[in-house]
Design brief:
Elements lengths: L18 H7 L5 H24 L3 H27 L2 E7 L5 E7 L12 H27 L6 H23 L2 H28 L1
Antiparallel strand pairs: 1-2
Length: 204
């Protein structure tokens, strides 16, 4: 178990200079995991959009959507994240009642044998980010159209998929302290580049 400070970086969208290694990374190594990573969350969205056309039973639609969202939360949190990008997270509560985030990252060997596939990484992160945004849009739509009965279902979608998104972002970038230091370092480099460019223009 690695703490948030000990997480090793996992390749997401970085291109590889070696052509042979790039061809290996582009392959989907876990097609079943990739399929179910999108299946449950996309199915929940489709059922939400078409449920009023398919059936008049609100209870049946609500139960179906919640079951799909719950299966998606469990699969993404425990299976697809570990297989597709080598990351896993969970939250544990101590005896004192304090909540702690725990993160795991797969160790990458020197030969790159366990490196994450770029195709799987794209599928994982696009699905992880896009679907919660869609549920947020559904939330505003249900609120402004006064569909109060659907608010509970939409909020469940936002909470469950948003929790996975938050957990994996924390798992990828590390603690908030690390994220702040990265932002500060980036801004410092940009400021230094602008200063040097201004000095070069003044000298010329």
């Amino acid at each position: 178990q690695d703490s948030s400070d000990d997480i090793e970086d996992v390749s997401l969208f970085d291109a590889d200079d070696d052509v042979s290694r790039r061809s290996k990374k582009s392959k989907i190594r876990h097609p079943v995991a990739s399929f179910f990573h999108l299946f449950f969350r996309v199915s929940a969205i489709i059922v939400y959009l078409l449920c009023e056309l398919l059936t008049s039973s609100f209870i049946a639609c609500m139960v179906t959507i919640i079951l799909l969202l719950s299966c998606d939360f469990w699969a993404v949190k425990n299976v697809t994240g570990r297989l597709m990008v080598g990351l896993r997270w969970w939250n544990q509560v101590d005896d004192d009642g304090r909540s702690h985030w725990v993160f795991e990252a797969r160790k990458v060997s020197a030969q790159g044998g366990k490196a994450s596939s770029e195709a799987e990484s794209r599928i994982f992160w696009l699905g992880l980010i896009t679907c919660p945004m869609i549920w947020v849009i559904f939330a505003f739509s249900a609120l402004f159209s006064f569909k109060v009965k659907w608010l509970a279902v939409v909020v469940m979608g936002v909470v469950l998929q948003g929790a996975n998104l938050y957990g994996y972002i924390r798992c990828k970038v590390g603690s908030r302290k690390n994220l702040t230091s990265m932002a500060t370092s980036y801004l410092g480099k940009q400021f230094l580049r602008q200063t040097m460019a201004t000095e070069d223009q003044a000298a010329s």
